[in-house]
Amino acid sequence: MSTATGPTATGHVPEYPIGTERLILRPLTAADAAPMHVYKSDPDAVRYVPYAPLELADVEQRIATTWSNTRFAKEGDAVSLAVEERATGALLGDVVLFWRGENDRSGEVGYILDPRAGGRGYATEAVEALLALGFEGLGLHRIVARIDERNTASAGVVERLGFRREARLVESSWFKGEWTTLLVYALLEDEWRERGAS
Ligand SMILES: CC(C)(COP(=O)(O)OP(=O)(O)OC[C@H]1O[C@@H](n2cnc3c(N)ncnc32)[C@H](O)[C@@H]1OP(=O)(O)O)[C@@H](O)C(=O)NCCC(=O)NCCS
Q1: Which pLDDT score is estimated for 81?
Q2: Which pLDDT belongs to residue 7?
Q3: What is the DSSP letter of 12?
Q4: What is the Å distance from ligand 1's center to 91 Cα?
Q5: How far apart are CA 166 and CA 194, in angstroms?
Q6: Residue whose CA is at the smallest distance from ligand 1 atom 45
């Protein structure tokens, strides 16, 4: 059973920081620019995300503008959060939750790790916290991830979290100079709650 009270998601102001077993998710600060630049400037790390390798000034500018939003006030808002290692305070990566539709109560997740932080389940743990934010906090009904089919590491993250692969959209996107086949993964609020209960 869905526990949301109405047909629409009506906005949410998250409480920060958001803690998980090994991580802290919190709003980005100007101090994140240098460690973030390390992976946002790495061509391999940004291969499947919607920007080219970024200069430090680009990262600083985005932290000060697009990535500074911390609340879901209206449909279309996105909240980007730093993923910090609880034990060391190191910046491991960042995640984003997009509020796509108010009427449909729909959202989308995005995530990137510093490659040096890969292979330890940190992305999965961070996105799991985003799901709680989306379903519990914002009252979403459905959260999707859209993934280049070559990006098997990214598909692994959402598959570990119980997302269903719903579609393979052949050459549906002209992305970074080539036709790209996208996989659409989705998770419903009820499916997420059932996983939590089992
Ligand atoms: C997508 C991305 C975040 C995935 O990173 P990742 O390290 O594979 O993901 P996780 O941090 O969840 O770690 C999972 C790996 O750690 C292993 N692992 C170790 N301890 C673990 C734990 N406690 N819990 C879960 N997995 C664990 C898993 O087995 C898995 O390894 P495998 O892929 O060899 O099976 C990373 O590849 C990345 O930043 N890519 C560039 C940006 C990008 O493409 N983003 C997605 C755009 S759609």
Answers
A1: 98
A2: 74
A3: B
A4: 16
A5: 19
A6: 112
